[in-house]
Amino acid sequence: MRNRHPDQRAEGAAGPFTTRLTWHPPGGGTALWESRPARRRGVLTVRQPGARTGRPTRADAVGLTRLRRLNTVAALAFVIGGALFAAGAALAQLGSGDAVECASIYFAGGLFFNTGGYVSLLQVINAPRHVAGGEGRLVTPAWRWWSYEPMRVDWLSVFVLFTGTLVFAVTLLNSFLQGLSVQQVNRLIWVPDVIGCVLFLVSGHLGFIELCHGRYCVHPRSLGWWIVAVNQLGSALFMVSALAAYTRPATDSAVSAGIANWGTLTGALCFSLAGLLQLGERP
After folding, report:
1. Residue 2 domain-assigned (yes or no)
2. The domain containing residue 213 runs over which residues?
3. Are strands 129-130 and 253-254 parallel, antiparallel or unpaired?
4. For residue range 215-264, what is the model confidence (pLDDT) as tens digits?
């Protein structure tokens, strides 16, 4: 969002990212664009001359329908993926399933996480966009399957999230390998797991930057804030699980299998809960 119209004022900025803009449309009044409401709900706020409060202006029917469908698919994918991860962790903790069975459940959950990550990226790419310096309205772009927009914090946050799901897929695939040494287990399974957790945490941090306009904030009445916060809690629990799963060469065992399983289970439930909440953050 670097190329702004001279009439626009960036009120929410964090480094190279702009998360909130105010400008004066040709017909008078003030238009307010905020990144998350625009891309998730398809709205911006327009205040007419003399009015004390603004009114939401929505995108066209095509854009709103697109957002609803993509949001539903992404949300359900994270709900199901989180539930499968929680089930796999529960089986591992209770000892009621063998390693292959648990790995299969994790892998199925990972596929849903991959789907949710990519559909979330599609939602950012194809979300209605404001017209720089123009009327106070959103315009629905032509459909695209991919874009490269690293200077947009919403795109970067979701892209990092999607990349994290792909890195997790490497861990989940490698977990099917048999006869690995301790060094191979740590290199092929544990290292990608930690990298994926780091990417999830970075994505959540960028989500807070977008939502809070460059700083951390607490907005208990904001559904978007709860979604980002619950997802970030899930990412932190995944990181705790990953660190506890490190296999010590001296003992040929994990630092704490119990912490690893419970961290995965509770973190996965956080992602499922955030997915349920996301169903409500739609146009």
Report:
1. no
2. 61-278
3. unpaired
4. 789 999 999 999 999 999 999 999 999 999 999 998 888 999 999 999 99
* Lookup: tokens for 278: 């996301």
Are 122 and 170 in the same domain?
A: yes
Closest to 93 measured CA to CA, from 268, 230, 231 = 268
Query: Facing residues of 53 across strands?
Result: none
Compute how many other C-beta atoms are within 10 angstroms of the C-beta atom of residue 24.
Answer: 15
42 with 68, same domain: the answer is no
**169 Cβ contact partners less than 8 Å away, ≥ 6 residues apart:** 110, 111, 114
* pLDDT < 70 positions in the chain: 1-14, 49-52, 97, 132-135
Q: Is residue 117 part of a domain?
A: yes
pLDDT at 269: 98
CA distances (Å), origin 179, targets 89, 175, 185, 257? 22, 11, 9, 19
How high is the pLDDT of residue 6? 45
| Same domain, yes or no: 159 and 183 | yes
Q: Verify that 54 and 80 share a domain, yes or no.
A: no
Of 25, 42, 58, the position where a domain reaches its end is 58
Please give the pLDDT value at position 108.
97
Contact assessment for residue 275 and residue 78, using Cβ atoms and an 8 Å cutoff: yes
Report how far residue 79's alpha carbon sits from residue 274's, in angstroms, rounded to the nearest whole number.
Answer: 8
Task: Specify the pLDDT at position 134.
Answer: 64
Side chain identity at 100, as an amino acid letter? Answer: V
pLDDT for the residue 50 = 59
Q: Alpha-carbon distance 121 to 138, whole Å?
A: 19
Contact between 260 and 239 (Cβ < 8 Å): no
Position 151 in a domain: yes
